Amino acid sequence: MAPPPTIAQQLAAKQREISVAEFFERNRQILGFDNPQRSLLTTVKEATDNGLDACEEAGILPEILVEISKEGEDRVHVSVEDNGPGILRKEIPNVFARLLYGSRFHSNRQARGQQGIGISAAVLYANLTTARPAKITSKVEEEEAAHVLDLFIDTQKNQPRVASEDVVLWDRPHGTKIELVLKARYVRGRQSPYEYLRGTAIVNPHARIVLVEPDGTRVTFERATEECPPIAKETLPHPYGLELGELGYHLKGTKRPTCVEFLTKDLQGVSPRAAKEVLVAANLKASTPPGSVQGEAQERLLTALRGVPLVAPSADGLSPIGAMLIKRGLRNVLGEVRPDFFAPPVSRPAKVRGGFPFMVEVGLVYGGALPADQPIQILRFANRVPLLFQQGACAITNAISNMDWRRYGLDQKSGSGLPSGPALLLVHVASTKIPFTSEAKEAIAEDPEIDRELTLALQGAARHLRTHLSRRTRRDLASEKFAIILKILPKLAEKTSHLVGKPIPDLIPVITRIMDVVNVETSVTSAAEGVRVPVEITNYTPRARVLELFVELPAELLAHATLEPAPDGTEAALGRAWWTLPKLAPSGRTHVELRFPPRTDAEANDFDWYVAGIDEAHLLGADPLPGDWEVRLPRTIVEAAEAAAEEARAPGAGEEEVDYDAAESSASAAEDD
Amino acid sequence: MPRSRARAPPKTTDEDEPRVRADALQPTLALAEAIYDQLDAGEIPRMRLPLRTKQNLSFQARDGVWKLGRQLGTRSARKLDGALMLLRTFYLVDFINEMARDKKTSTLRELYYISEAWEEAKFHSEDESNLLIEDLEVLCTRLREDFRLHPEENGASVIGDLTIRERNRKGIVKTINCRDDVGDGGYSLPFNVEKEKIEFVSTKAKFVIAIECGGMVDRLAENGFDEEHEAILLHLKGQPARSTRRFLRRVTEELKLPVVVFTDGDPWSFRIYASVAYGAIKTAHLSSYLATPSAEFLGVTASDIENYNLPSDHLSEQDIRALQAELTDPRFGTPDWRAEIELMLKNGKKAEQQSLAKYGLNYVTEHYLPEKLTEMGIL
Ligand SMILES: Nc1ncnc2c1ncn2[C@@H]1O[C@H](COP(=O)(O)OP(=O)(O)OP(=O)(O)O)[C@@H](O)[C@H]1O
Ligand SMILES: [Mg+2]
């Protein structure tokens, strides 16, 4: 009788290769194919991300066409077409019908794709649910015709199978189109292809994206800029971000003859001096061939690399959106909401976590048709890809919830949690390696470094909001006063004069007492001759004023500006200019004007106006000069400012009186007669 | 139950008699003069007025009523609301002077519509125009009738053995007995109830019972309560109009009849009583002319609800707020009233007058009222 099989033998009998089909079945959730609605979104997303990545690499302005139509009860036909560089015939089967085949895994550069799974997973899902092949059409510029391939994935071997093949003429110079039939369901609204493409359009204002929905509705997200974003450079791996296996892979694959050369030329941030230190610490010779560093020596090398101060990873691999384009993208897509305020977007400088650079960008929009009584809307992005799921588990959401937004003018119960108000926040995290909470790339994981940057960027945007709101309050107050002096006071004078039979008195002294402000009124008007920014300064206070007017605007704008009259000082690099204004008698007025070439992209928010020589309480439409300007003011202005500060300290007249019309008349409402 | 403040009010003097006084317009022009002078001197125009708030009520021991205190508020053109009210004041003054020239009068509601032509100064509601007229009464120490402004005819009705002489619109004097010469609706009070309009001739009645709801007035009339107990029934119609309060004041003063107030048992009814007996906040400047300090509160009281086991409702949040506001209202500052309000808060219940019908239609006239009136020493 044969002895019973040992445990090892029993296990060996069970060992076999796991097919990709099984792998897929077990990981549906993390791959984004766990229900019909989400499967459609994931498919559109993977194909679109790939199209955008390809265009970006080739420096092409992207045109993406997504068409979705119903095919039977629970099946959907999806077609995603891009105008990217196209894919060589020999690569097509592997790209689309082989999992873990991609060009980005080791590239160390910000891209949407990272893993080489995305599009093949969609193909596999289509194969499995409808047994229909993926139809790929792709044309590269140097070839006359396009290749059309019908592809299946051999789920046992993880190998492509070409079901049929053809060559066709295609009316575009280059590009790729993928068509799939899959089990799916189309809905609009939250977490839909529509929402995903809209978000994509906001952070990719250089892309033109068209969506054709099953009912024939054609949605076009027009591009807002004709400029391609700068191509993120491929960077060398930085030792701080290397895992042991990766180090081994690079040691083995390098063509450098010696370890010093490998360290200084194949890795980032290692100076020759640091390399020497590392090798001493790792007990290796400078001349050792990298290929011979194995096993325990590899571990020593990695530990040594982490123990020596190195130059921080460079941010060249990042491709931020930039303040200007965040604003354009938001405005382009949110046009129908007509917000009152687009805060100047905040684009933080690049920082490093582990061996990878990252940066945070924030845009904020306020007012208009945004709902005032609901939680604010949050648009999350990682490397220009909208994140639509797992909002609650995302570091971005946490950073927002942990801030006290009440200080900045939004409602928030007890000072934490999602604030409410008519606001929308756009938050973009860009990195050569985003720490996602899972392979589904739906939420960014908590990380102290990223959290710090998120908070700083959010605070920056929130401060702009607070300034906007306080300016708005002062404007409302001013418009109330203008109503009094322009509409009511003249009539009151007319009525009382008539009743007492005397001539109407001069009202300027009363008007200046009521207003008691210096008003700075600015506007931006665009015409064929150019963009004009006229400024009118009126002294509505009861005494004569000597004032200094300052403006701050983006330096590139100031460079193209004509100032009238000529300013008394400028600081071009900082985008600043200032004027000593002529002495203004009560109700006196003077003008300043900035002129720009036609079609200059300037708006009121680009200009900050400051005035010196009067205190904040008596200033409208401008702010007092911030302390850090360090401008030498004329003596007259300094004296005026001191006098104004004195005046501000003096107790205001009539302040402590009870306002008769505001006093509550308590029970009187119920006592009618 | 709270007893009214005991002192009998002194007889109103002749200067207090309302009629369109010849000098009514002079103070309005003085107001215009003051504002003109301020404008001319370069000052921000403003007026100072006594605050018509419950915090600014002060008890006048001499008259036994609550009048306006000394706290002043400022209406200034520094604020938009103040500026608008100042402008409205002079549109109103102008209109009043115009009416005097043309010998016209206007209802309060008509004035509200007249203001349509005042552009930004137009009133947004009749409340707003009424408040401004009261302001002008206070500032000029005149009555709105002096300004030729009067409310619509919407008077309370009187049923009982009271004979009066009324000079009607055509100047004809009619003698009317408010029980025998009128229909089921009773005698309807005109807005002007002064001597030149209405004179009291005679009465056999022993007291006046002022009632909040029409249904209860009908019940008492149908049951013959006024004849059996020699009472005059007066329908308050909720918060009583000035004419109703003035009428009650004259009845007590000239006919020496006691007045009892019979309302629902809820916080709002307490306020009805307060405005009859102590003076209303809005018209505190006229209290010595409108209030009847000898009027007594009959019920329904919070303890009646318990003692008579009346069908009741829970106090709403609004009711509770109203009761709490009454606790800080100086007019309800007596220990009796405080106890009454606190009891209602404690029990958390309110009841309508007509809930007495629980025990049958005659219960109110055969049991409840005789019992209460005996307790009060009126029967
Ligand atoms: N439309 C396209 N045009 C040109 N090249 C493409 C296109 N789609 C895919 N590719 C190439 O095929 C590779 C595999 O794509 P796939 O989506 O599977 O992986 P990925 O984008 O690298 O990573 P991820 O799994 O994160 O999406 C890409 O790296 C890219 O080189
Ligand atoms: Mg991809």
The description of the largest β-sheet of chain B is:
6 strands, mixed
Give average pLDDT of chain A, whole number.
Answer: 89
Distance between the termini of chain B: 16 Å
Class computed from helices, strands and strand pairing of chain A:
alpha+beta
CATH architecture of the largest domain in chain A: 2-Layer Sandwich
In the CATH hierarchy, the architecture of the largest domain in chain B is 3-Layer(aba) Sandwich
Query: Main β-sheet of chain A, in a few words?
Result: 8 strands, mixed
N-to-C SSE string of chain B, H for helix and E for strand: HEEEEHEHHEEEEEEEHHEHEHHEHEHHEH
User: Strands of the biggest beta sheet of chain A: in what spatial order?
Assistant: 5-4-3-6-2-1-7-8
Unreliable stretches covering 5 or more consecutive residues of chain B: 1-18
Total discrete domains of chain B: 2
CATH topology of the largest domain in chain A: Heat Shock Protein 90
Rg measurement of chain B, Å: 22 Å
Total strands of chain A: the figure is 26
CATH class of the largest domain in chain B: Alpha Beta
How much beta of chain B, percentage-wise?
Answer: 15-25%
- Give the number of DSSP strands of chain B: 17
For the record, the CATH class of the largest domain in chain A is: Alpha Beta
Summarize, please.
The complex is a heterodimer of chains A (673) and B (379). By secondary structure, chain A is of the alpha+beta class.
Structural features, described:
The complex is a heterodimer of chains A (673) and B (379). With 673 residues, chain A is an alpha+beta fold. Chain A has four domains: 20-221, Histidine kinase-like ATPase, C-terminal domain (Heat Shock Protein 90, 2-Layer Sandwich), CATH 3.30.565.10; 244-307, Helicase, Ruva Protein, domain 3, CATH 1.10.8; 323-469, 2-Layer Sandwich (Ribosomal Protein S5, domain 2), CATH 3.30.230; 510-672, Immunoglobulin-like (Sandwich), CATH 2.60.40. Chain A is 32% helix and 22% strand. In chain A, strands 5-4-3-6-2-1-7-8 form an eight-stranded mixed beta sheet. In chain A, strands 9, 10, 11, 12, 13, 14 and 15 form a seven-stranded mixed beta sheet that branches. Chain B is an alpha/beta fold and 379 residues long. Helices cover 39% and strands 17% of the residues of chain B. In chain B, 46% of the residues are buried. The model of chain B is unreliable at 1-18 (pLDDT under 50). At the A-B interface, α14 and α15 of A face α1, β1, β4, α2 and α8 of B. The complex binds adenosine-5'-triphosphate and magnesium ion (MG). Magnesium ion is lined by residues 46, 49-50, 113, 118-119 of chain A.
